[in-house]
Each structure stands twice: as structure tokens, then as C-alpha cells.
Predict the structure.
Amino acid sequence: MRVLVTGATGFVGRALVRRLLDEGHAVRAVVRAGDVSLPDAAERVVVPDLAAAPPGSEHFQGMDAVAHLAARVHRMRDSSEDPLAANRRLNRDATLALARRTAECGVSRFLFLSTVKVHGEATHGRPFRETDAPAPEDPYAISKLEAERALADIPGLAPVVLRPPLVYGPGVRANFLRLLKLARSGLPLPLGAARNKRSLVSVDNLADAALTCLVHPAAPGRTFLVSDGRDLSTADLVRILARHMGRPCRLLPIPPAILRFAARALGKSALADRLLNDLQLDPSRLQTTLDWTPLQTPEEAMQQTAEWFEEEAE
């Protein structure tokens, strides 16, 4: 296949570009500037601002599919004056402009990377499924859901929506990077009593799932949740990462209720929720409909991530 990829230099984009090239597909990478690091085999198309204008019609010539990964990512502390408008500008409006241009140019297959957050911030008793009613709680998730819904109404487009949870792997940033730093520190952490369950997906597993959505004949028009297939507690994550970094793991069994109380007093309730809440998803539709299985186990992916972080720290 010949695939146009937006967000090609991002965390997930780099992994998908590698995966596509490894499987013999041609890649046309949409980038903000020409002097970016990408494999030589990937063709570059410079589009300084997707929100201002999508790629020109000539950039879709010869393409079989579009993988749209560019996004304004989730931010715990959004400093913009209007976070919802800022998220809508790129995550909804730019997505729809790109999708309309895609359909106008006769390319039907359109992969949209969304988020499990369209279902909500926590699960209670059972994992999220694609058929569950959406309940987005922040501007990022709201903008993603609005884009999902509008994509379905574009004539001539066959969108595939992929909803991942937290993505990790070598090169990860944000919250998972903070967790790596904590695991490497060897400091006592008050997470020994955390029994929560969270779904995760390694960046290589996500890239492989995205590739499957691009090539499988049963994918168009469908929405899929994706994960590694094994849910872990925050305490499990720290133990696994510390072990792979050869660091001591000192987890104090502080009851979660006490941690939540302390977090509220410090104005850190959102952080406590991320560390202690359940957030599980059911990836069985992806596995059965597209016959997809993860490339890596969580243990393998965590080891790669820990080894990368150790090299970076040194």
C-alpha cells in the first residue's frame, strides 16, 4: 500500500512509519518542516500547519490510505485561554478538513487515532467496550469524539477509528516518563496498596494495530479499542520497571483512601485518580474482527522501555 501519514514525527507516528516500511509499504510523511528525522525511504511533504490548511490535492495522488495521527495531545495543565477551542481546532476541525480532502481525492480508507478517553476517565466493574455510551470529560476527549462522529458523515470516506489507552515505549514522554523516573529513583513510594487495573498499549503494538486497520478488508467503518491485552496496577508497573532497571522497589502499603485525602488537600486529586483509578478496555473486537494479536507482551515492551530510559539517563 501507499499511505499518507500525518503526525509522522510524533511518538506513535515514528513507530507506524517504521512498521509500514518494514512491511514493504510506501510512506508519504506529512511534516511541519523539511529537516526532520525520518527513514530515508519515507517521502516528506511539508505542511507547516494542518489546522490552517490540509495537504494539497497533489499530495494524495497515488495514495491508497491516510493514517491521521497528528493531534493536540492531552494536557493535565492546559494554559490556553480556551482549551476546548484549542483542541477543536486541530483534533476536530483539521481532522475533518483533511478527511474531506482525502475523500475528494478519491482515497477512501482513513485511519483516525482517537482515545479511550472518549468513554470516560475510569471504569467501574468492567472494561469499556466500543458499544458503551461515550462520556468524555475533558476538552481533548470531547474534541476527539466530535471528530469521530463527523467523520462518519463524509461521503466517499471509509473511516477506521482506533481508541488506545496510555501509550508507552522507548521515547515516551509525559506521565509514563514521570513513572520511569520514580521507578529508577529507588525512593519509597506510597503505592504498595494500589490494586487498580489499567489497560496500556506499547507503541509497537499500537503501530501494528494501526497497520492492520489500514490493510484489513473488514476494518472500514468500524471503531476499535486496542491494548496489550493484560491490565496492570500502578504498583505492578513500578515493580516491573524497577526490576528491568536493576533498582530497588520500595512500595509502602498506604491505603488508597488516605492517598486520595492527602491529594485533595494538596490540590492533586487528578494525579491521584490517574494513579489509583481503574481504566480498562476490552480489545476483543479488534482481535476477533481483524484477527489481531499484540506483537509484544507487556513484559517485553516494559523491558525495552526501561532499557531505553537507562541509556538516556546515563
In short: The beta strands are 2-6, 26-31, 43-46, 65-68, 109-113, 158-163, 166-168, 200-202, 223-225. The first strand starts at residue 2 and ends at 6. The longest helix spans residues 83-104.
